Amino acid sequence: MQSLAGQFLIASPYLPDPNFLRTVVLMVQHDDEGALGLVLTRPIHLTVQEIWKNVSGENIDAPENVLQGGPVEGPLMAIHQEEKFAELEVIPGVYFSSQRENIEPLIHESRSEFRLFLGYSGWGAQQLEAELEVGGWLTLPAKKEQVFETNNDILWKSVSGEVGSNIMRESLNLKRMPQDPNVN
User: Fold this and answer.
1) Coiled-coil region(s) at which residues (predicted)?
2) What would the pLDDT profile of 161-182 be if each residue is shown by its tens digit?
């Protein structure tokens, strides 16, 4: 089995789970025991400021929305660009943290982008592979600029369009494909 860590999972129309309708998931970990990913396209109606007030009692200026990382409850998690606070490198320059001692300095000190998540997407052993087998997910290598895209529509269109172009290119056995196939 090839690890999907560092890949995007894009929900296909064949995935029956409504938790993942029109989602882009960044795969953080994937091995024989299971997988963990974070949904990048599900903001919730809580800001980083509100969450941090609940967690620490501190008032901070952070109006960004927190994301619903998936349907599984878990600790507050972060994707960020600060290697010194990393617990795991997801792709070059993109790191994952779930320990408070790493998330707190991100919130207070970080000058680079980060995203906070409540919950995560989790799969048991072979569960994700079974969903992939029936066409529930499409995959694409994750890119740093897409991971930190805050406009969900732009992110969804960007990655789903890229996957569609890849499928067309492969099925037609093309080396290159124009951005807009209508100009062909």
Assistant:
1) none
2) 887 666 555 555 555 655 555 4
